[in-house]
Design a protein that fits this description.
alpha/beta; 6-stranded antiparallel beta sheet; 5-stranded parallel beta sheet; 22% strand
Length: 420
């Protein structure tokens, strides 16, 4: 264990701007609001951070896991960090302070709490909704093989609309081919796309993150390609007209265009590999991408007879706005149990995925009781609470303690959230 740091030395928590993909996961998970961002960087406030480590496991790229030994009086300010394009190197400490400091100041995740002032207790990490570890049988993922400085080049070999043309929801299935360039991925991982051009400050656009919609052996089995599910963004969060920089770029790509790709990312939201593993998948809109990847992985091995149960809860405004509706409906009913929640269908009452989870309580409970079951939730951030409430209701109705069950699912890597 590292010796305590002298009081004048701080082990400062920093975020690497070269690796960070600006996904906001760290800011959402920080229990004391020590992380913030501007239009350029995500940063850690040294006056607030207490080294509790809650933000480190959920980060898909590892950019959050960086530390520097500095004199407390010379700590890098939030404004310093906003101006960075790369992390600074180690600064030598004065002789007296250096003599008392640990020998390996850059060693991430060890002795981090020592950086907090003596009078400030380290806050416990908040209980995240999902696991911070993968299922025990998940394959080993590769991450950060390609970065902002060394992106991979992929060629567009397909761009297809997967929602009806007469709806406002323009969702595309985009296939990228890497040729002979190695780009190994697993179901549940994501990649970053670097859109061309610059922002209002003249800086090159940062990467945007997209979940894979294809299995590990490619959109077309045996080919070095992958697919994405991308919705064209035409409004901001307040409903005002605004064109998403990367989504519109991707949706407008033509066959044989090339794109710059970084990643892959993600080492926890991964499907189990052991035989008879069950998947409960809960998603809305483009959150269907990783579910499609996992489902296709299972479909391609039907003949082996090693698949467990698949249960899907899929939410959309209308059937016509539900991506992949046609192919989904053609899957065998004995292969996947499909439950569609349509919130704007004039022919039926509004229903959301959490409503269907409660309606299928008996079957959901059977899956929850099976230690071979993993649960995956992907979609808008707002769905987290509703899904957790529905799962809790199912457990409580059966006389189970949801608090205990929830913690078991998290601890065993069997409940995963990827929301945005």
């Amino acid at each position: 264990m590292n010796a305590p740091l002298p009081p004048e030395v701080l082990k400062q928590h920093l975020i690497d701007p070269e690796i960070c993909i600006r996904c906001n996961t760290c800011e959402e998970t920080c229990p004391i609001d020590a992380i913030t961002h501007d239009g350029t960087n995500y940063v850690v406030d040294p006056d607030i951070c207490n080294g509790c480590m809650a933000c480190v496991p959920p980060c898909p790229t590892g950019s959050i896991d960086n530390w520097r030994l500095v004199l407390r009086a010379d700590a890098y300010s939030v404004q310093d960090q906003f101006g960075w394009d790369e992390l600074p190197g180690e600064k030598p400490l004065p002789d007296g302070a250096a003599a008392d400091a640990p020998a390996a100041p850059g060693e991430a995740a060890l002795g981090v709490a020592d950086s907090a002032p003596a009078a400030a207790p380290v806050a416990p990490a908040t209980l995240l909704p999902g696991a911070s570890i993968p299922p025990w049988s998940a394959a080993h993922p590769y991450v950060n093989l390609y970065t902002h400085k060394t992106p991979a080049t992929a060629t567009v070999v397909g761009n297809y609309r997967v929602t009806d043309a007469d709806t406002d929801s323009d969702i595309r299935h985009i296939v990228l081919d890497f040729g002979s360039l190695p780009f190994p991925v697993l179901e549940g991982q994501s990649i970053g796309i670097l859109p061309p051009g610059a922002d209002a400050q003249g800086r090159a656009h940062h990467a945007r993150q997209y979940s894979l919609a294809s299995p590990r052996d490619g959109e077309r089995a045996g080919y070095n390609n992958l697919s994405l599910t991308v919705k064209r963004v035409t409004q901001d969060h307040d409903g005002q007209p605004a064109l998403g920089v990367c989504s519109n770029y991707l949706c407008d790509l033509a066959k044989n265009d090339t794109v710059q790709v970084i990643g892959p990312f993600g080492n926890t939201f991964l499907m189990p590999n052991h035989a008879r593993a069950n998947l409960m998948m809960i998603c809305t809109g483009t959150g269907s991408a990783p579910m499609r990847a996992m489902t296709e992985r299972y479909r391609r091995r039907i003949e082996r007879g090693t698949n467990g149960r698949l249960m899907l809860f899929f939410g959309a405004r209308t059937q016509r706005e539900l991506p992949y509706f046609g192919p989904l409906m053609r899957l065998p009913r004995d292969f996947i149990d499909i439950n569609l929640a349509l919130s704007r269908d004039s022919s039926q009452p509004r229903r959301y995925v959490q409503d269907l989870i409660r309606e299928r309580a008996a079957d959901v409970l059977d899956l929850l009781a099976d230690t071979n079951t993993c649960i995956y939730v992907c979609g808008l951030k707002g769905m987290e609470a509703g899904v957790l409430d529905a799962l809790r209701d199912v457990a409580v109705q059966a006389g189970q303690d949801w608090t205990i069950l929830h913690e078991v699912l998290r601890r065993e890597g069997r409940l995963h959230f990827e929301t945005y």
